[in-house]
Amino acid sequence: MSDITLGIIGSGQLGSLLCQAAKKLNVKTVVISDDEQGPAQNYSNEFIHSKYDDESKIKEFIDKVDIVTFEFENIPVDILNKIDLEKKVLPKPGINKIIQNRKLEKTFINDLGIKTTDWAFIEQAGDIGKNKNLLPGILKSNTLGYDGHGQFVLNSLDDIKKDWCFTADYILEKRVSLKKEISVVITRYLNGETYIYEPIENVHKDQILNHSKIPADINKEIFTKAQNNAKIISEKLDYVGTMCVEYFIDQGDNLLVNEIAPRVHNSGHLTINAFNISQFENHIRAVCGFKKEEVKKIANAEMRNILGSEIQDYRKRTFNSNEYFFDYEKKIIKEKRKMGHFTILKR
Ligand code: ADP
Ligand code: MG
What we know:
The longest helix is centred in the middle third of the chain and has 17 residues, at 220-236. The protein has three domains: 5-89, Rossmann fold; 118-174, Dna Ligase, domain 1, CATH 3.30.1490; 178-346, D-amino Acid Aminotransferase, Chain A, domain 1 (2-Layer Sandwich). The model has no long low-confidence stretch (mean pLDDT 95). With 347 residues, it is α+β, with helices and mostly antiparallel strands. The chain has helices at residues 13-24, 55-64, 77-86, 93-99, 102-111, 125-129, 220-236, 271-274, 279-287, 310-314, and strands spanning 5-9, 28-33, 46-49, 67-70, 88-89, 119-122, 137-141, 151-154, 170-174, 178-188, 194-196, 200-205, 208-214, 241-250, 255-261, 300-307, 323-327, 338-346. Strand 4 (67-70), helix 3 (77-86) and strand 5 form a beta-alpha-beta unit. Helix 1 (13-24) crosses helix 9 (279-287) and helix 3 (77-86) packs antiparallel against helix 4 (93-99). The structure holds adenosine-5'-diphosphate and magnesium ion.
C-alpha cells in the first residue's frame, strides 16, 4: 500500500499513460498543465490548469504532492529547479538542462566516447558554409524541437534562404543514410539498479514515428552495444526513472545516438502489452523509490501510431484478443497529431 501522491507536469498521452500506471500501484496523481483540455485529466486524481510560470498555481501543485515528475522535457529548467527546492523532481532538473539543448546533449554523449551523427553548432548562415562537409544535412533548432518541428533539409548551400535571420541557434547534422532506427528504453531506480528493455525497431514517416516492433532485426553486437550505451548514459546522468535513447544505424552498421528523451517514450508504448511491467509502471516505481521488480517479456509486438483522422476508423473497429487499441481521447482531431496507438502481440 502506498500513500504517495505524485505530481506530473504535462497532460498529453504520456501523462495519461503514466496516470494509469500510477493507479495500478496505488500512487495518487496530480497533473498540472497549460492545456486546459489535456487528456491526462481523465485519468489523474486531480488536475490543475495553469501556465508553468504561475507562481500561485505552482505553489498549489507543490503543496498537494510528495514527488514530481514530467511527461515532456521542455519545461523551463528554472521552474523545475524552484519546484525541486520543495519537492523532489525526478529525473533531476539538471538533466533537462543538457537534453533541452542539442549542442549540450551531443557534446555530453560524445564526451562519453559514444558516437552521434557528425554535427556542428550554427549561429549564423556563414557557419553553414564553413561546414560544407556536413551537407547534405539537416539544420535543427538547437532547442525546443519535437516530431520534426524546427528542422530544415539542406541538400546544398543553395538551400539557404536569403531571408533566414538566425535569431535562434541551430545545429547542422550530416544526413545519415539510414539502414534502420532503433531505440532503447531503460529504467534506472534510486539505488542505481537498472532494467533495460530489448532494443525496439522504429520506422519514421515525415519525421514522426510511424511504427515500432520487437524484436528489432539487428545483430547481437548492435543489440548489446545499444543497451550498454543506454546504461552508461543513464549512469552518467545519475538518472532516476524511465528514459529512452534513440539510435541511427547507418549502411556501414555504425550505431549512432540520435537523441535522448529524458522521459517515457512513444516507441516504448508496446511495453504496456508485451511486458509484465511497462515503461510507465517502471517509471512510477523508480521515481517513487520502489524497489526493482523482475520484468518479464510476454510476447513480441508491433505498435502503430494513429495520426489525425485515422482515429475515426479505429473508433469503429472491433479487435482480436491480441490487439490493443489506445484512444488518447483528444478533443480535437488535427492531421499528423498523435491521436492514439494500436499494439498487436505476436507469439
Ligand atoms: P525530434 O526531436 O523532432 O524527434 P529527431 O532529431 O529525432 O527530431 O528527428 C526525427 C526523425 O528525422 C529521426 O527519427 C529520423 O528519422 C530523421 N532524421 C533526423 N536527423 C537525421 C539525420 N541526421 N539523418 C537521417 N535522418 C534523420
Ligand atoms: Mg526524435
